[in-house]
Specification:
The protein is an alpha+beta fold. It has 14 helices and 14 strands. α9 packs parallel to α13. It holds the Pfam family AAR2.
């Protein structure tokens, strides 16, 4: 990084003290991961804002364990302290440590300087991409959705009541087994099949079962305090939980929210700017997907194809800016994944979506 940036981060950046970590642990923050050595004590010069810290233990046979991690909103100059627990192969939270010892660590953080790696800002595009991917996630969202100190869980939910198949598990094609819904994840619950008011008339039930605008606006008012960017923030958090932590509760919530935004004809007509912001968020997420991840996970059962066809159908004819932005998304899908949304004439084709050949 350039000297000016380094000086600014030295003065205003945060610190993560990571104590007693075993050798050969995979440790990462945002888009960067390393196998750490015995002298590693954490990360310094962390830009203020949201970050995802993760780690994975390596067995004596050299096998990588499940990636575990937590989201944390760092304030300027904040010092966060975590300590490795060899018994659980997990981190002790700051509240579990001796408070007097923690205060000594924080007061003398400079003593650890030589054993702390700087937050990687080279190439700078990585941090810019991370900021864009998480720009709408607020500290309040993280506290509400991940109440266990921002930790992303991989433990199955302990729940006696039956859940529908889509909630309970999704097929993880990378490991070839079913993964149950994780506990400790408090994503906003909503049922796309109950998208109308309690005392709805027969006409309203029919209308709002097709057009999800009532449900979306109800959630916007009740949960997100009429701020659609916070609503998109939950969509971002759910996606990052999947992308960075292989968390399938996040995958389910992300799919639910994409379905919801794509199925709002009346709200789209009233507030087209909301849906331009949705497309921006959606495209940035797809930009971060490896091609095999897109094909095997995100477009399974033609999910993206059917959602974007629904979205296109709901765009008002007079909303030129929204229509233009949708066309840009289509061009992006072709250039990034060689994947093209069928035309309206082709929507009956069972082979959609199709792969197109790109000129070199």
């Amino acid at each position: 990084m350039d000297q000016q940036t380094a000086n600014a981060l030295f003065d205003h950046g945060a610190f993560l003290l990571f104590l007693d970590a075993p050798p050969n642990l995979e440790f990462g923050i945002d888009y960067h991961a390393w196998t750490i050595g015995p002298l590693f004590k954490g990360v310094k010069m962390i830009p203020p804002g949201l970050h995802f810290i993760y780690f994975s233990a390596t067995s004596n046979e050299g096998l990588q364990g499940i990636r575990t991690g937590f989201f944390k909103y760092f304030e300027s100059k904040e010092v966060a302290v975590r300590e490795w627990n060899t018994h659980t192969e997990d981190l002790r939270e700051e509240r579990e440590l001796d408070p007097e010892q923690v205060e000594r660590y924080k007061k003398n953080i400079r003593d650890f300087d030589r054993n702390m790696g700087p937050y990687p800002l080279d190439p700078p595009t990585y941090y810019q991409r991370w900021r864009t991917l998480t720009e709408h996630i607020t500290p309040g969202l993280v506290r509400r959705i991940l109440p266990n100190d921002g930790k992303v869980s991989h433990l199955p939910r302990k729940s006696p009541e039956p859940l529908d198949d889509d909630v309970l598990s999704v097929k993880d094609k990378r490991v070839g087994k079913e993964v149950e819904k994780e506990e400790g994840m408090e994503f906003t619950p909503f049922d796309l099949r109950q998208s109308f008011p309690k005392n709805a008339t027969a006409y309203e039930i029919t209308k709002w079962s097709i057009d999800k605008s009532w449900l979306a606006r109800d959630l916007l008012r009740r949960v997100y305090h009429d701020d659609h960017l916070v609503m998109l923030g939950e969509m971002q958090l759910s996606f990052v939980c999947l992308l960075m932590a292989q968390n399938f509760s996040g995958f389910h919530q992300w799919k639910q929210m994409v379905r919801l935004f794509c199925s709002c004809q009346e709200w789209m007509e009233e507030s087209p700017g909301v849906f331009i912001d949705f497309i921006d968020t959606f495209e940035h997420q797809l930009e971060e997907c490896p091609e095999d991840f897109f094909r095997d996970i995100l477009s399974e059962n033609n999910f993206i194809s059917s959602m974007l066809q629904e979205f296109r159908k709901n765009i008002p004819l007079h909303e030129f800016e929204l229509g233009k932005r949708f066309l840009q998304l289509k061009k992006f899908l072709v250039s990034r994944f060689k994947w093209e949304l069928p035309t309206e004439e082709d929507e009956e084709d069972e082979d959609a979506p199709m792969v197109v050949e790109m000129d070199e």
